[in-house]
């Protein structure tokens, strides 16, 4: 493994662990404050978490433009330093015995904004520092590290809460973000032609150009829509699945078993993805997402625990395989100078669809019961993701596209002269 790959792995692991610490730390801090009477209600938790989510959704398209306009390592450096400062401020307040919801809401919003700006830049940073033939292996390792961090985060936050208090957990979170910033901020990237700063008109032109480039790739849009469907369906399953498990599969322990098997499946899938001889990665992406229909059908039909748990293991294995394949496909097929903008639309769908599913699952189940939405979701997940296989692009194995500099592409329009249609066709045929 090269030094840039090691630094990417270490930096992203630090950031993933820090991100996983935040929800548990805030939850336990606010619930402790509610129990002691220092906060208004348990609903304060929803307000604080919403203040983190909303800036992420609003700012992602803007963040995509900045990820393409500025060197990605500098964007990641600024985003992680900002996240670290916000978490250290939360930790300092908690250590002083203060649990002021308005302060936590503002700092959560700052954290959400930093996540929005850093997320598209990370994808661009990988493409700018790692050779094309090494990206799948790196993305696989990044996903394994992220999965382990997501598993360890809640336990770490809970342990620090019991032993030291939530303030120290937030300080650890801030330190991890700063560690990520210093690790990734000094990476040397390949030089890429980046647009000059032409003011607001140029910014709007770049935003439109990003959407134009996004619509150009049928394989990308079809996959993103399919992923949005399974993120929405996952919100239903993660809400209704525990209810079904507790009522008809043996109690609380049944869902714990299902969730643990899912975690194992995801880690095994992510580990295996980097070692599979996958010449048609978009086929693997489509099948990996469609497999999520299995546990939805199993829970919707009220199958026994062994069948439901096995189905969830297979689904999470598929998602573990999907993630590094998808990241590598995007980094391979999308020109590097528009990768941030195009990728931001993918992230936006993912961030928005899952919370929507979580929010509407119970009201829908109240009207229709638990089986109907899960079975309908299973059909939609399978259909939306397997539809990608109808595209010729899914069966191609194109050469990597790293720059839109060939003669077939039109030059980008100057500021104040509108936006370019970004050329005719990319090398992958779209």
TrEMBL record:
Signal peptide from the UniProt entry: none
Domain Major facilitator superfamily (MFS) profile intervals: 4-395
Subcellular location: Cell membrane
Lipid bilayer topology: Multi-pass membrane protein
Major localization class: membrane
Superkingdom: Bacteria
Start and end residues of each stretch annotated as Disordered: 401-430
Alphabetical list of InterPro entries matching this protein: MFS, MFS_dom, MFS_trans_sf
Protein name per its UniProtKB record: MFS transporter
